[in-house]
Design goal:
Radius of gyration: 19 Å
CATH architecture of the largest domain: 3-Layer(aba) Sandwich
Largest sheet: 8 strands, antiparallel
Protein name: Serine hydrolase
Domain Beta-lactamase-related: 43-302
Shape: globular
Structural class: alpha+beta
InterPro entries: Beta-lactam-related, Beta-lactam/transpept-like, Diverse_Enzym_Activities
Strand order of the largest sheet: 2-1-12-11-10-9-8-7
Helix content: 25-40%
Organism: Aureimonas fodinaquatilis
GO molecular function, one term: hydrolase activity
Number of helices: 11
CATH class of the largest domain: Alpha Beta
């Protein structure tokens, strides 16, 4: 079974736990001390091997109700790209936007746009000025989100530096919809929902009906954990393949680096020096896996508060790299 034993660090309402060896008890105490000071934290679940070693809902909707995973959605889109490549719907990551979905490209876009590869898009190295941060509001207020993102000026050579932009991932999601003939919602349910046994509700769509590729998806923390377990186990879940081993390896190549966190970036996943594979969302939403240490983690936080690398997200990384890593 997936979760043979559960050890909770919850408060009075927590289930009784068996006696732990002193070292484990101290490690769990260290985690509790660390999370007690995280005022934005909603819930955390940590699985080591087959066992849930931490399950704590400090506030918010808990572990069984959906939470907005924000930009963790970008990592989900990266997995859907892998399925499209493996199924043959797309020839490979070097296929260009002009080859895969020429109908998406506005006539007045930069000449380089048609030559952008899907790898450029999934690694956010498209070179286009971003639509996130201060540009986000104007972007989602536009009448055509894909065209708006593709009309942004080229500010870097495609394939070089990472420019964080939800619009770039949204273009990728729209291209996947064209290539597969299936909405992102349907793809997500087929590729992840069914094999992992998780519910994936419908989420925000753009004016043309494309599901937002890079934000606003909602999952329960337990569903997030199952994705983390699958990534920890290199594409397998309970021994069955969900994504191919080849795509897992491709996803975790260090191809770019975030100018904000300093973390490396692959096909939609951040990569830490210690070995964590991380999906990160605004406010402090995290899906994390550490294959070497057999750890899988789901974290939700207040989705309306910022979580910068020098703030809440930085403290969450300290939690992962310190007390949580020590559990393994």
């Amino acid at each position: 079974m997936l979760n043979r034993r559960v050890f909770s660090i919850g408060l009075a309402s927590s289930i009784a736990v068996p006696l732990a060896v002193p070292a484990l008890a101290q490690q769990r105490s260290d985690v509790r001390s660390a999370i007690d000071g995280l005022s934005q934290l909603h819930a955390i679940i940590v699985q080591h091997g087959d066992d849930i070693v931490i399950e704590h809902a400090a506030r918010g909707p808990g572990v069984d109700r959906v939470a907005n995973i924000k930009s963790c959605s970008k990592s989900i889109v990266g997995l859907l790209l892998g399925n499209a490549v493996d199924s043959g719907a797309i020839t490979g990551v070097n296929a260009t936007l002009g080859d895969v979905a020429p109908s998406l490209i506005p006539a007045d876009a930069s000449a380089e746009v048609g030559s952008l590869t899907l790898e450029d898009l999934v690694t956010m190295r498209a070179g286009l000025e971003g639509t996130s941060g201060g540009n986000y509001g104007n972007w989602i207020s536009s009448s055509n989100w894909v065209a708006y993102a593709l009309r942004r000026p080229m500010v870097a050579t495609p394939g070089e530096r990472m420019i964080y932009s939800t619009g770039t991932t949204h273009v990728l999601g729209a291209a996947l919809t064209v290539a597969t003939g299936e909405t992102l919602l349907r793809q997500a349910r087929m590729v992840l929902g069914e094999p992992l046994g998780i519910e994936i509700p419908a989420w925000t769509r753009d004016p043309q009906g494309n599901y937002l590729g890079g934000n606003e998806m909602a999952l329960t923390p337990r569903a997030m954990l199952r994705i983390a377990v699958m990534m920890r186990d290199e594409g397998l879940f309970e021994g069955k393949p969900v994504i191919s081993t080849d795509w897992f390896r491709s996803s975790t190549q260090r191809l770019a680096r975030s100018p904000y966190s300093g973390l490396d970036y692959g096909y939609g996943w951040f990569l830490s020096e210690s070995g964590y594979i991380i999906a990160r969302g605004y406010g402090g939403q995290i899906i994390a896996a550490h294959p070497e240490r057999k750890l899988a983690i789901a974290i939700t936080s207040d989705p309306n508060m910022p979580a910068r690398s020098d703030g809440h997200f930085g403290r969450l990384m300290e939690l992962l790299e310190g007390p949580v890593l020590a559990l393994a």
